[in-house]
Each structure stands twice: as structure tokens, then as C-alpha cells.
Specification:
- Helices cover about 75% and strands about 0% of the residues.
- The protein is mainly α.
- Strands 1-2 form a two-stranded parallel sheet.
- α5 (about 100-120) packs across α10 and α6 (about 125-135) packs antiparallel against α14 (about 280-295).
- The two termini are about 25 Å apart.
């Protein structure tokens, strides 16, 4: 994800971590994908990661033309209308009511909470700063999944998770002059609420296709985001600049919908493990976009902390139960 988007593979990792998600011992192992299918799946997954890495720079562009509440509500409304149109066109049945509470958690975390909190943070924080902090999302999601599923990871898992958290905390305190800022609090809140949404989405993805989980979560938010968009647009100034409109369209269409479609298709073709390795590049890609598209000074602490977090994520993936 979008950085919201930076860690979507974690919902599938959470599925893989759940004991009941494992196939019965009598089931034959899946046939390995052909070389062509593997190459195509890798390309699709890489496109998803690329789409998610642009989320924060596009949000910064969107804030040039829209207020934060307008940007978030209009973004979610557009994505929900597209998702709803796809569900109608494909005649996808409404999920059973027992799945609605879980979908509500996904909606609160990934459709509303994460975009809103990160957008509020980006009013004062740089995209490079946000990319490093939100780079901790895979670790946060892994911890939520562990608590939710009751699994028992190894001490190496907890050590790597703790090291990643310490690295990000040290980075934020150093960049903020010795104390956490309001933007940092928004970003840490976004980590927690999005991790909860991803974990519940991973559980739902055992019984529903992943793209439908996101699509129904978006549609559930329509009664909130449509009137919210009308109110926000009436009270916040709007300036239809080229960059502002481009940023809005990208976070709505590219990050929150199309990016997820190609990501899930790629992940289905090559598997969670290989796809997750591609996603490790997302924070570094976002740092690059922040320089190229926004001209932000990077310094040395941001890429160094991002690499440290990526190493910790790689260790947690290999040190699961």
C-alpha cells in the first residue's frame, strides 16, 4: 500500500500463520506454476508494489488542491464507486452476514483510519519520514496476527520485531528534535489501526477472494464517505491544480483499487512468500519518489533506518513459528 497500501501482503501472511488455514494433510500439494505464469505473476505483484509506493507522494500532491478531510472522503468515495461497479458487473453475491463484522474492521482500518491518519500526518511530516515510520507496518501486522491467532513465534521473531520498533522510534525522535510530534502520533496510530484491519482481512481472505474483501469494505463505507465528502468540500478550500487532481485520482484509483487487484493476482500466481520479498522494496521506493516527485532532501538517516527495518522484517518472516 499504498503505504495503507505498503503492507497488503501481511493480510495474506496472517492467513498463512493461522493454523486452521493450512490444508488438510490428505490434500495433494499444489502444482508449481509454469515459468510463464511465474514471470507474469511476479510482474503483476511488482506493479502492485510500485502502485503502493506512490501513495504518500500522491497524497502530498492531493493536499496541494484539497483539504485533508476532503481528500480522504473523496478518495474513498471514488474507490468505493469503482469497487461497487466491479462487484455489480461480475454479479458477486453479498457476503454472508457472519462476515460483516470482520469487513467492518477492515473498512475502519484500511479504508478510513489509515488514509485519514496518514493524510493528517503528511500536512506537516515529509513523505520520506512517513515512509520510514509506516515501513514498520509489516512487523505491526505480524504482531497483531500472532495475538489474534494464538500462535507462538520464536524468540528470534520477537527480537527482530522489537529491534525494528526501536529503530523507527529512534528515527522519529531524532528527526523531531528529541520528542514525538503530532504527525508522529498520527503515523503510529495509523500503524495500529491498519494492522488490525489487515489481520482481520487476512482471516476473511480464507473464505473470500482477497480483492472482494477490499471491495466490500470500500462499499460498506459509502454511507459515510459520500455525505462526508459533501460536507468536507463545502467547508474546506479546493483548488483544482493539476498535481492536486492527479494526486487524488492516483490514491483513489491506483493505490486503493487497481494496485490491490494486480497485487492479489500476482500473489495468487507466485505465492505469499515470493510476493512478500518484492514488497520489502516498497519503503525504499517511496523514499525515491519523495526525492524525484517532491524534491525532498533525503539525508542519510531515512534510507539507513528503512534498510534496518527491512532486515528486521526479513528476519520475522523466516523466524515464524
Amino acid at each position: 500500500m499504498r503505504a495503507h497500501d505498503s503492507a497488503t501482503v501481511d493480510e495474506s501472511i496472517a492467513v498463512a500463520r493461522h493454523p486452521s488455514a493450512a490444508p488438510p494433510e490428505s490434500a495433494p500439494p499444489p502444482a508449481p506454476p509454469s515459468a510463464a505464469a511465474s514471470a507474469g505473476g511476479t510482474a503483476l505483484a511488482a506493479l502492485g508494489v510500485l502502485a503502493f509506493s506512490l501513495t504518500f507522494p500522491a497524497t502530498a500532491w492531493g493536499l496541494e488542491g484539497f483539504g485533508p478531510w476532503s481528500l480522504v472522503t473523496v478518495r474513498s468515495a471514488l474507490a468505493a464507486l469503482i469497487a461497487g461497479g466491479c462487484l455489480l458487473a461480475l454479479r458477486v453475491p453479498v457476503p454472508d452476514r457472519r462476515y460483516w463484522p470482520g469487513l467492518a474492521v477492515v473498512a475502519a482500518g484500511t479504508v478510513l483510519g489509515f488514509p485519514l491518519l496518514t493524510t493528517l500526518a503528511l500536512r506537516t511530516a515529509s513523505t520520506a519520514h512517513a515512509a520510514v515510520v509506516v515501513g514498520l507496518l509489516p512487523l505491526t501486522t505480524a504482531v497483531f496476527a500472532t495475538v489474534r491467532t494464538g500462535s507462538r513465534p520464536s524468540p528470534a521473531f520477537w527480537g527482530a520485531a522489537g529491534a525494528g520498533a526501536v529503530a523507527v522510534l529512534a528515527f522519529t525522535v531524532a528527526r523531531s528534535g528529541g520528542a514525538l510530534t503530532t504527525a508522529d502520533l498520527y503515523l503510529f496510530g495509523a500503524l495500529l489501526i491498519c494492522a488490525a484491519g489487515y489481520t482481520e482481512g487476512g482471516r476473511l481472505a480464507r473464505v473470500l477472494p482477497g480483492w472482494q474483501v477490499i471491495a466490500w469494505a470500500l462499499v460498506m463505507c459509502l454511507p459515510l464517505v459520500v455525505p462526508g465528502a459533501l460536507i468536507a468540500l463545502a467547508h474546506e478550500p479546493v483548488e483544482l491544480t493539476g498535481r492536486g487532481v492527479a494526486g487524488l485520482l492516483w490514491v483513489a484509483v491506483g493505490s486503493q483499487f487497481l494496485g490491490l487487484v494486480v497485487w492479489y493476482r500476482g500473489m495468487a500466481a507466485i505465492g505469499v512468500a515470493r510476493a512478500s520479498q518484492l514488497q520489502l522494496a516498497q519503503p525504499l521506493l517511496t523514499l525515491g519518489w519523495s526525492v524525484l516527485l517532491l524534491g525532498e532532501p533525503l539525508g542519510w538517516t531515512a534510507p539507513l533506518t528503512a534498510v534496518a527495518v527491512l532486515v528486521c522484517i526479513a528476519v520475522t518472516q523466516r523466524a515464524r513459528t
